[in-house]
Amino acid sequence: MIQRQKGCSDIYGREAKVxxxxxxxxxxxxxxxxxxxxxxxxxxATELFHRGVGETTDIVTKxxxxxxxxxxxxxxxxxxxxxxxxxxxxxxxxYGDVSQPIKVYYNGTxxxxxxxxxxxxxxxxxxxxxxxxxxxxxxxxxxxxxxxxVYKMLGLKKLVVHLNTLGDDESRKQYREALIDYFxxxxxxxxxxxxxxxKKNPLRILDCKVDxxxxxxxxxxxxxxxxxxxxxxxxxxxxxxxxxxQIQYEINPNIVRGLDYxxxxxxxxxxxxxxxxxxxxxxxxxxxxxxxxxxGGPQTACVGFASGIGRxxxxxxxxxxxxxxxxxxxxxxxxxxxxxxKYAAYLTQELRTAGFIVETExxxxxxxxxxxxxxxxxxxxxxxxxxxxxxNNEIKIKNNKTKEEEVISLDVLIYYLDEHLNSDLFGDxxxxxxxxxEGVECTCGDDCKxxxxxxxxxxxxxxxxEGVECTCGDDCKxxxxxxxxxxxxxxxHCHHEK
RNA sequence: GCGCCGUUGGUGAAGUGGUUAACACGCUAGUUUGUGGCACUAGUAUGCAUGAGUUCGAUUCUCAUACGACGCCCCA
Length: 498
Description:
The chain is α+β, with helices and mostly antiparallel strands. The chain folds into three domains: 13-168 and 228-318, Bira Bifunctional Protein, Domain 2 (BirA Bifunctional Protein, domain 2, 2-Layer Sandwich); 329-421, Rossmann fold (3-Layer(aba) Sandwich), CATH 3.40.50.800; 454-498, no CATH class. The chain has helices at residues 13-32, 46-52, 58-61, 82-91, 137-154, 169-183, 192-200, 215-218, 229-244, 291-294, 309-318, 338-353, 367-376, 387-391, 413-421, and strands spanning 36-37, 43-45, 65-68, 74-77, 102-111, 123-132, 159-165, 250-251, 263-271, 281-287, 302-308, 329-334, 358-360, 379-384, 394-399, 405-409. The strands form three sheets. An eight-stranded mixed sheet has the order 1-5-6-11-10-9-7-8, with helices on both faces. A hairpin with a 5-residue loop joins strand 15 and strand 16 (405-409). Helix 1 (13-32) runs antiparallel to helix 5 (137-154) and helix 5 runs parallel beside helix 9 (229-244). It is elongated and about 95 Å long. The two termini are 39 Å apart. 35% of the residues are buried. It binds one RNA strand through strand 6, strand 10, strand 11, helix 11 and helix 13.
């Protein structure tokens, strides 16, 4: 069997719906903030990332997907999105556009040759946004606000925005030297990684997990002490704008971004949810005023942000956010003989064109099997096509929620569905008309209580097994209540410790 | 690149150096129910990641590889 490549994943089924939903929310929010969608190539000249992202960064030195194409060109699969956007900005001379600044967002796959772990794949999907051509602290605040708003609209609540500044190049340089001077006499007391960091990137020592409790580290000089007047000023302005926008944040002097191009504002957004792995930063960004110039464009002030979709999806799951994902259909057409099947073919076509979600049978199941299938698909209505009825220009339609069945004229079928699908008929337990069933995940997206009313106990019909992890998504007790011992006959085989 | 654990059917999984590898769920068909959702009966293949080794014999022991999970580094 040919397996998928290491660190890559197939996203399908319900998970794919979640991803699509996240995309639609991103698109909607970005539209409000007036960012334009940009698509840049997945591969670029290797040099772009070396010069842009930084020769010393890990994502270039050891995580890079480099190859030569048949023409001998040195190519790299993009490990992040900013370098490509900046290249495009320069190449297309966007700095000359009448409308400034340029605000763009992207959403696509990135590639990093890493060892996979929780929240980290070799192929990852990131969405990100950039404001190119503005040095105004308001744009820093806007980027953060837009990012937070995307998360909020998705329903994420347990987030912490960590904010810091690296200052301008001068501040950064001085601070770096100060850190080296400070750590050098004591470096033997630090972990091996930190000893390496001292030369390579002393700022990294600050967020070392191993030495976090070390007093020397705690008393290390802070960035804020080394800021130039101007840098300090603009940092305060950023905070002021965030306050006005009512975006909550925490100043965290230990936030140091890994990519070389950052200066001034840097931030990370952390998901504070139980169960997240060690990679719980779902988005991060900052200002990069030097990058455009460094890549051959005019001096241009920019600020940006990027977020991993995979990590967002993980956060949504861990926070158990209810998403408005449709996983029901309007009507299932059942049939027995060949004539009825032909009519089913005709009717599905008609009704789909009219805007309904319609399914029928494709695998030759018995009538009984077709009913089962209709249930599995959460069909709101079912019709058993019957030649006799059809000859009389009639059709029998059953409401799967109320179990009521009636015979109606074929001429009014569309009106019938239209009326009943949008009425309150669905949902004795709620008035949202979503048609959900107890014990089945409600997808109406309203704040209805259908979901929470599932009071299934051990014998719930969600299909899970006692003693086996229940995946029905409800808060059912199937899993936790099994207290059988070895010889029970519940079939759970959960084998408690003997 | 380093560390640690794992890999049995569509799914959850038991299990053993040696005849037909449990059990449950799911699925399909049949009986019954006025057309399903309950119950009962039957069926569900090529076998225990791949390759080598130890052995009379390995799914079970050893090694390598691949992949998965988690952690370090680093990063979203």
